[in-house]
User: Which sequence fits this backbone?
């Protein structure tokens, strides 16, 4: 598959254009490759870090698809570590594609949709609004679970940065999900009377909101809650377009 064709497929499937005004990330192709580049091997990862690039290049990836890209709404001089990252991509002729909020919000491939499926949520509907766009999902568990049981079902633990604010009911039935840095959005769970809210990392300022409103907040780790989306994109490209795909897993524990 030609790189130009893959970019069109991804831009369309992930609805990149809908997030131009809402997302600081430069979503889409951030670093190109040689003219006429054919993509056979696709690496997917959470972060555009040098270690990620090195692992993808060692495998021979033609393109690396990440959730957290290199460009975030401001000019960035190509010096220092940024230079080293760009240099490696160019030397290896490896393209870089980033998808931030579109990959949180996607109803099938998104981080939040994938977490909802992993929990077997029923009656799933959009949840949480960011700049007018629904980002997360909420639903009802097929059977009541404790916060620890929910975390365990998703593989979250001390090594991933798991923190639980256990102020809701011991047995959880309803839950809202916004991966990554969505702690502020616990207010949506409070307003909608949910038992629990699942996100990536905690914020000090929402602790008392959870306690006073009797809502449990499960923070599985920013990285850990955002691994499923890129893997779903990889699976999509493998099944639909026959690409060889590898997930580059470089956890931060945060």
Assistant:
């Amino acid at each position: 598959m030609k790189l130009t064709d893959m970019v069109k497929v991804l831009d369309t499937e992930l609805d990149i254009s809908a997030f131009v005004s809402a997302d600081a990330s430069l979503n889409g192709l951030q670093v190109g490759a040689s003219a006429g580049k054919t993509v056979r091997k696709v690496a997917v990862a959470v972060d555009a870090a040098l270690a990620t690039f090195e692992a993808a290049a060692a495998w021979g990836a033609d393109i690396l698809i990440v959730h957290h890209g290199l460009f975030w709404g401001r000019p960035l001089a190509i010096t220092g570590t940024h230079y080293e990252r760009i240099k490696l991509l160019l030397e290896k002729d490896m393209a870089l594609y980033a998808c931030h909020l579109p990959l949180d919000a996607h109803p099938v491939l998104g981080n939040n949709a994938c977490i909802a499926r992993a929990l077997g949520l029923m009656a799933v509907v959009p949840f949480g609004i960011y700049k007018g766009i629904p980002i997360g999902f909420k639903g009802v568990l097929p059977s009541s679970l404790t916060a620890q049981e929910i975390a365990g079902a998703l593989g979250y633990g001390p090594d991933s940065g798991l923190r639980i604010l256990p102020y809701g009911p011991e047995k959880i039935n309803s839950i809202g999900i916004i991966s990554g840095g969505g702690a502020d959005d616990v207010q949506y769970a409070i307003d909608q009377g949910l038992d629990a809210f699942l996100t990536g990392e905690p914020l000090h300022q929402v602790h008392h909101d959870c306690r006073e409103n009797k809502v449990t907040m499960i923070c599985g780790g920013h990285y850990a809650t955002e691994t499923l989306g890129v893997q779903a994109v990889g699976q999509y490209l493998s099944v639909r377009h026959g690409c060889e795909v590898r997930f580059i897993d470089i956890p931060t524990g945060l």
